[in-house]
């Protein structure tokens, strides 16, 4: 197992897919990382040399915000929105969707099950 940015990545996964296990790294970001370093996309994590793994680790540390730092940054942004009481901040406070979705019939994942937050069960 390779450990990159505090995350263990299984040896049998392809490098491109394995890097997406890191919070803040998606498929496109993984492709750009591997392109800059010069690692073949079809390789598996177990086939990488220690130099390749250290190069990936170094690139991520220097150029990307990932894992705990990114989670902290996002939560601070949401708290800031709630403190200044803008529309999006008010929606976050009320546990409602912030991006214009309908709430009359949907939004169960955000609002919770019936019976919570003032929604009466029939």
UniProtKB/TrEMBL annotation:
Q: Does the record's keyword annotation contain rRNA-binding?
A: yes
Q: Where is this region: Disordered?
A: 98-122
- GO cellular component term of the entry, any: small ribosomal subunit
Concerning its family, UniProt says: Belongs to the universal ribosomal protein uS13 family.
One GO term in the molecular function aspect is:
tRNA binding
InterPro entries recorded: Rbsml_uS13_C, Ribosomal_uS13, Ribosomal_uS13-like_H2TH, Ribosomal_uS13_bac-type, Ribosomal_uS13_CS
Query: Subunit arrangement?
Result: Part of the 30S ribosomal subunit. Forms a loose heterodimer with protein S19. Forms two bridges to the 50S subunit in the 70S ribosome.
Q: Which Pfam families match?
A: Ribosomal_S13 (PF00416)
One BP term from GO: translation
The record's Gene3D superfamilies line, in alphabetical order, gives: 1.10.8.50, 30s ribosomal protein s13, domain 2
Q: Which PROSITE patterns match?
A: RIBOSOMAL_S13_1, RIBOSOMAL_S13_2
Q: What does this protein do?
A: Located at the top of the head of the 30S subunit, it contacts several helices of the 16S rRNA. In the 70S ribosome it contacts the 23S rRNA (bridge B1a) and protein L5 of the 50S subunit (bridge B1b), connecting the 2 subunits; these bridges are implicated in subunit movement. Contacts the tRNAs in the A and P-sites.
Q: What is this protein called?
A: Small ribosomal subunit protein uS13
